[in-house]
From TrEMBL:
Signal peptide, first to last residue: 1-25
Presence of keyword Signal: yes
Residue span, Bacteroidetes PKD-like domain: 34-101, 119-187
Keywords linked to the UniProt accession: Signal
Protein name per the record: Putative cell surface protein
Segments traversing the membrane: none
InterPro entries: PKD_3
Pfam families named among the record's database cross-references: PKD_3
Top-level taxon: Bacteria
Length: 579
């Protein structure tokens, strides 16, 4: 470890001078903002080799005239803006950095890991059972490689044959068989490799699979609903036949059916898939319920302004999932979310698709104005938009098992907005690992593990017991960008999203520079049907908030909607009018 002189007396004198200057400036009208520190490593971990100096160069804001203090084991080792460090032995050093001005103090923690060797490290999402593909089809791979020395070389092999030296590779084979695709990354300090098992099959060897949102659907008389088939695999040249009570209604390649029977009652909906290799059948129940308003619950003087029950809390993987709480079932997760919200805390919905469903002790009325308030903690540069969905209790059973309607926002209908987007998350094989994901657009990635900040073993929800799970919803084009090295900016969406620094639906010009709790407001009249037409709902009973982007902001981690509260804004408006 490099030795440094004692800086205690020096920094003490500098602080006295700084405070003296502050005292002389009390009469100034300028309002100063506290300093900010941004480190350029995502997890605040810096790697170097023995006897190889590393220079850490933070980015500072509002730090004019600042005093800097770098500390190891509580001892000041430098008062420079940047730190150069080296060690003659393998070690891990935990350091802190303070930037002190008369407006406040910024603080960061970091780790410097000194290693004997720094070989590359590969990250790549691979299903436990490997891949199964049809002859002639292709798979594209683009691994993430941690290459501290920045001189790694790549190579792809099928068996012992080298097939590429690029980082990205597309596998395609016309012959049936089992293949081991191997990716190798190497530098002067060593190598890492991953082996990807791929079975190239004939069509009849690939089983057809599909899934449905639920087995029973409900809608009010006079309405229609879209019933989609999800997670279709190995359909090939499939045709789908839809029958209602034994009568064929649709026969084509469409993977969704619009149910629009008008008469009240229970219907059997049968869908059959047929291709040249196999067939499959699924029976569903659709119940046409009494007309809208039958089960409406008018608000009264005793109605509570906020939610009264959490019906489902299912986040996507994220840095706050499983942190300081343990849940082993959905019931326990719902109870946790209720306790957090009741204590004026927040629940984090994790990455894309994570959601929270709440209900109220009355129906929220549609008056063509703002009716719902959802509290988040957005501010300029930190918008983490949540899509909002609403539901009526159409069957009157008090459960959110009816039809969800999206509240359209400013991005609805734009070409870059993806409807019916789906992401599948895979449980890590060991603690402290990122959560890998794939989507229905052919993309893949990871929810990073941020060991410097959130040290729970897994970011994958503990109460999800399956090795993977899929979340569905509407995905907005991300507005996350790195405006300068290490400084990430989550841009604002115009209107219509929770936890979003909207200039319109926050109903205030407050800049919220302290990142306090603030609300976005929503109109039930913005609810749309499956085909984008106005739903014309007179009231709603349930609200769902769902993370609406699939993005991450470097060392800040995944973009994740936070929810502090959900309220009936009508009751607030009515109380205000009475005053």
């Amino acid at each position: 470890m490099k030795h440094f002189p004692s800086w205690s007396k020096t920094i003490g004198l500098m602080l006295i001078a700084l405070l003296s200057f502050s005292a002389c400036s009390d009469d100034e009208a300028t309002v100063l903002n506290p300093p900010q520190i941004t480190l350029d490593q995502e997890d605040n971990i810096y790697l170097t080799k023995i006897n190889t100096p590393i220079t850490i160069e933070p980015k500072y804001e509002n730090a004019q005239g600042a005093v800097f203090a770098w500390k190891i084991d509580g001892k000041i080792i430098s008062t420079d803006e940047n730190l150069t460090f080296s060690s003659s032995k393998q070690t891990e050093v935990y350091a802190t950095l303070e930037a002190i001005t008369k407006a406040g103090t910024a603080y960061e923690e970091l780790k410097i890991s000194v290693r004997n060797l720094l070989p590359p490290v590969i990250s790549l999402s691979i299903p436990e059972e490997g891949y199964k593909i049809m002859m002639g089809s292709s798979l594209n791979f683009k691994p993430e490689v941690e290459d501290i020395l920045e001189n790694a070389e790549w190579a792809w092999y099928i068996g012992d044959k080298k097939v590429s030296t690029d980082l990205e590779y597309t596998f395609k084979e016309d012959s049936k068989g089992n293949y081991d695709l191997r990716f190798e990354a190497s530098n002067e300090d060593g190598k890492d490799e991953v082996i990807i098992p791929i079975a190239v099959c004939t069509p009849d060897e690939l089983p057809f699979t599909w899934a449905f949102e639920q087995d029973k659907y409900f809608l009010s008389a006079g309405r229609s609903i879209r019933i989609p088939i999800l997670n279709i695999e190995n359909a090939f040249d499939a045709e789908y036949i839809w029958e209602v009570n034994g009568e064929e209604k649709q026969k084509n390649k469409d993977t969704a059916f619009i149910f629009s029977e008008k008469k009240e009652g229970e219907y059997t909906l049968k869908v059959t898939m047929k291709n040249n290799f196999s067939s499959a059948t699924k029976e569903l129940i659709v119940k046409v319920c009494p007309k809208e308003g039958t089960y409406e619950r008018k608000p009264s003087g005793a109605s509570i302004i906020s939610w009264n029950k959490v019906y489902k809390f299912l986040p996507a993987p994220g840095q706050f999932v499983n942190e300081n709480y343990t849940c082993n079932s959905m019931e326990e997760a719902n109870a946790y979310a209720e306790s957090r919200l009741a204590a004026n805390g927040y629940v984090s919905l994790g990455g894309f698709g994570g959601y929270l469903v709440v209900g109220f002790d009355h129906s929220i009325q549609n008056d063509n104005d703002y009716n719902i308030q959802i509290a988040g903690n957005s501010f300029d540069g930190s918008s983490e938009p949540g899509i909002v969905w609403v539901m009526q209790d159409e069957n009157g059973d008090g459960k959110p098992n009816d039809t969800w309607y999206e509240l359209k926002g400013s991005e609805y209908g734009k070409p870059e907005t993806i409807q019916n987007y789906a992401v599948t998350y895979y449980k890590p094989k060991a603690p402290g690992m990122p959560v890998m994901w794939t989507d229905n657009q052919g993309q893949s990635g990871s929810v990073d593990y941020l060991s410097q900040f959130h040290k729970q073993d897994y970011y994958y929800p503990n109460w999800v017991t399956t090795p993977s799970y899929t979340l569905y919803g509407t995905c907005l084009k991300s507005k996350t960008k790195e405006t300068s090295p290490g400084y990430w900016y989550n841009g604002t969406f115009e209107w219509g999203y929770a936890d979003n620094f909207s200039p319109i639906d926050r109903l205030t010009n407050d800049t919220n520079h302290n990142a306090g709790v603030n609300g976005n407001h929503f109109k039930i009249s913005d609810a749309v049907t499956h085909d984008g037409k106005p739903a014309n709902l007179k009231y709603i009973d349930f609200v769902k908030i769902q993370t609406g982007v699939n993005s991450k902001a470097g060392w800040l981690g995944e973009v994740s909607t936070e929810v502090f509260n959900v309220k009936d804004f009508n009751l607030f408006k009515n109380n205000t009018k009475k005053k």
